[in-house]
Write a structure and sequence with these properties.
Helix content: 10-25%
Number of strands: 4
CATH class: Alpha Beta
Order of helices and strands: EHEEHE
Strand content: 15-25%
Shape: globular
CATH architecture: 2-Layer Sandwich
Number of helices: 2
Structural class: alpha+beta
Radius of gyration: 11 Å
Length: 67
């Protein structure tokens, strides 16, 4: 399935793990990580999933396209 949406909840602690894992999709401009506007999720699905699974506070969420 393809990832169609990625977002970060307010639980983010700005640990920078997501940016280290996938800087093409995530950035840390302030006190909370953000998804880069216009990022191509299809190119980095494995990295997005890895970042979400590694997030210590489970702040990274994503939605997959349904069949």
């Amino acid at each position: 399935m393809a990832i169609v949406k990625v977002w970060i909840t307010d639980d983010c602690t700005a640990c920078n793990l997501c940016v280290d894992t996938c800087p093409e999709v995530f950035e840390l401009p302030d006190d909370i990580a953000e998804v880069i506007e216009g990022a191509d999720f299809s190119e980095y699905e494995d990295e997005i999933i890895e970042a979400a699974e590694s997030c210590p506070v489970e702040a990274i969420q994503y939605e997959e396209e349904e069949d």
